[in-house]
Structure formats: structure tokens, C-alpha cells
Specification:
signal, alpha/beta, 12 helices, 5-stranded mixed sheet, single chain, D-Maltodextrin-Binding Protein, domain 2, about 40% helix
């Protein structure tokens, strides 16, 4: 009798252990389950990007992919990257390749891009001038105060013909000190980039990324005096999905790119954002120059 009891107890323990083994945490770090169970993925995002991922989260395609996508809105790019680095979110969707490179350099972090999504042009906006040619001597120009977008804005001003930059200008960390020619004697002020739409009336020109422009009711293709063109020269401004290095090979996270580039999602983006988010479906190696 005692032997039978011990045998039954041993079998029960084995069954419990086997049951626990069905649920796992993927070796790459993301929370996942085996077989037909759904994997939970938390995406850190903001603004229009958060809106897009909420749409994807509710889609039939996400259910078919067995993903439970939850969108956590975080105010601020550095804060969103910090949350990704610290594991508070599994992946984030808000930033350009240049922004990621700058963050990794300045924070000594090792976040990884796992997919490209889109490029949305940065624009030069004004309520005082109707064209670049009308910009007057000494006009005040507002630039984003984060390094990647400061450099991006200066490159755009150069493309517009208003200034010239050093030949070895750093696309990620360049500053106004790298201006070599400023024929209109423009003055520069660094601002919190989220305030761009609100300061248009207070400055001569303001450079605004499209996500923030959209939140301010602006369409870069219609309302800006000048905007970036989609080309090899602007590939550093392509937006990417980003995760921590220990999760970059997670199979669930890899499915996110397919969901983003699906026909349903692209139609939704086109309808909602008036063509200002141009789809980019290139491998990350394209950004790395490999």
C-alpha cells in the first residue's frame, strides 16, 4: 500500500512538472507560451504611432498570429527607450534610426532595431513667411533640442538653401556650431520638439517632425514651406521597431513587422494620416550600410 502511494505521488509530481514546462519565457527574453497559446507583447509608443499599434492590436491578423498586443503610451523618447532597456516594455515604436543610434551612444545602451516601418518627412513651417525665398534677415529658427532631430533639422535647412554645413557634418550629433554659411543671419533657438506646433506664431521658422506635426493638426505635404524628400540621403530618418538586445530574436516580436506591413494596416495608415507616413520595408542591414 505504501509503495503504491509513493508511486502515485511520484507520477503526480512528474505531471505537475510537465504542465509547468509548457509555459515558458522565450530564451530571447520576451514572455511567451508554447503551442497554440497567445503571447503577450507590450509596445511602448506615443502619438500617432500608438494609434497605429492600437489598431493593429485589435486586428484579426494579430489574433491569427496568436499575439496579445498591449500598447503602453509613454511621454518622451528617452523615457520610452529607458522603459525598453529596463524591460518595462518588450519593444517600442516611435523613433528613427538616427534617434536610436544617438540614444545608444549617449546612454551607453545596446537597444536593437528589428524592423523598418516608415519614413515621414520633417518639415519647415512658418506663419510669417509663405515661402523659403521670403525668409528675412535675422529670422528666428526653432530647432528640436534632442541631438538627432537638431542635426536632422540642420540638414533640412541646408537642403532648403538657407545655410551650409561642414563637409563632415555628423548626421546624428551635429549642432549649429557646424554651420559654415548663414547668409540670412538666421538666429537659432532649441525647443522641446513636442512644442513645435505651439510656437509657430512666435518664431520665423520652426522645424517639426511629422508625428508631432500631425498632433498639431499639420500635414507636412500641404502645410510646410519645405520638407524632406524620400531618398538615400534621408535613410537615417527611417522609423524602426526597437527592442533590447536579449529580445531581438524573439519570434513573437519578429511577427510585428508583418503585421505593420499588412495590407489592412497600410490602408488604415493611408486613410488616417493622408500619405504622410511613407512605408519602408527594408532590412535593418540597409540602415547599417551592410
Amino acid at each position: 500500500m505504501r509503495k503504491s502511494f509513493v508511486l502515485l505521488l511520484g507520477i503526480s509530481l512528474l505531471l505537475v512538472a510537465a504542465g509547468c514546462g509548457n509555459k515558458s519565457s522565450d530564451s530571447s527574453g520576451a514572455s511567451s507560451t508554447s503551442g497554440s497559446e497567445t503571447q503577450k507583447i507590450v509596445i511602448g509608443s506615443m502619438g500617432s504611432d500608438a494609434q497605429i499599434w492600437k489598431h493593429i492590436a485589435q486586428s484579426q491578423a494579430a489574433k491569427d498570429a496568436k499575439l496579445d498586443i498591449q500598447v503602453k503610451e509613454i511621454n518622451g523618447g528617452i523615457e520610452t527607450n529607458n522603459a525598453t532597456k529596463e524591460g518595462e516594455v518588450d519593444v517600442n515604436a516611435f523613433q528613427s534610426w538616427a534617434y536610436l543610434v544617438t540614444y545608444n551612444k549617449e546612454s551607453k545602451a545596446d537597444l536593437k532595431a528589428i524592423a523598418t516601418t516608415y519614413l515621414e518627412p520633417m518639415g519647415i513651417y512658418s506663419q510669417k513667411f509663405k515661402s523659403i525665398d521670403e525668409v528675412t534677415d535675422g529670422a528666428l529658427v526653432a530647432l528640436a533640442d534632442n541631438p538627432a532631430n537638431t542635426a536632422r533639422g540642420l540638414k533640412l535647412l541646408e537642403a532648403s538653401g538657407l545655410i551650409k554645413l561642414k563637409a563632415d557634418f555628423d548626421d546624428a550629433l551635429g549642432t549649429v556650431n557646424d554651420i559654415t554659411s548663414n547668409p540670412k543671419n538666421l538666429k537659432f533657438e532649441l525647443i522641446d520638439d513636442k512644442t513645435g506646433p505651439r510656437v509657430i506664431q512666435d518664431v520665423g521658422l520652426v522645424l517639426i517632425g511629422n508625428t508631432i506635426a500631425l498632433e498639431g493638426g499639420l500635414n507636412v505635404l500641404k502645410d510646410s514651406l519645405f520638407h524632406e524628400e524620400i531618398s538615400q540621403a534621408t535613410k537615417n530618418n527611417i522609423n524602426v521597431l526597437v527592442t533590447s538586445s536579449d529580445k531581438q530574436n524573439d519570434k513573437g516580436l519578429q511577427k510585428l513587422a508583418d503585421l505593420y506591413h499588412s495590407e489592412d494596416t497600410q490602408k488604415y495608415i493611408k486613410d488616417e494620416f493622408g500619405g504622410t507616413k511613407v512605408e519602408v520595408k527594408e532590412p535593418v542591414s540597409y540602415l547599417e550600410g551592410k
